Amino acid sequence: MSTRGVVYVHSSPSAVCPHVEWAISGTLGTRVDLKWTAQPAAPGQLRAECTWSAPAGTGAKLASGLKAWPMLRFEVTEEPSTGVDGERFCYVPGLGLWRGRTSANGDIVVGEDQLRTLVATCRAAEQLAHRLDELLASSWDEALEPFRHAGDGAPVTWLHRVG
């Protein structure tokens, strides 16, 4: 079952860029040569993005490979496919990796069991609000938003998994 997604490397030191390309190449099974551009939100850092096509579950493998470099800021998305929810992964230094399911239009999906656990364990409205913010990646979105806007109009590399 094939799906598509996007890797957004929002910021990377130039010395790490070849390692990022190597990690993506290893996961997709094809040589990756990203178009790196300056990241205005972090002077001295570079950014790149690529669209990929590969089997369902590839988004998790890409995120796992990229989190080996804790100085990166990145997002990986995977579109829903038959019988498989979409996913979004966000990594921010200091916050770590966040993973969530997504709907067909890209909204974060919070499952019934997650909501039941919140209701059963949260004793105060403030605690409930904090846990909902975590489930919805609010801190990650806040940290990444300046990097997303700084990348508007940047070139995109299109990739397809071999075999």
UniProtKB/TrEMBL annotation:
InterPro entries named in the record: DUF3145
Protein known as: DUF3145 domain-containing protein
Pfam families for this protein: DUF3145
Naturally occurring in which organism (per UniProt): Amycolatopsis thermophila
Domain of life from the UniProt record: Bacteria
Lineage per the UniProt record: Bacteria, Bacillati, Actinomycetota, Actinomycetes, Pseudonocardiales
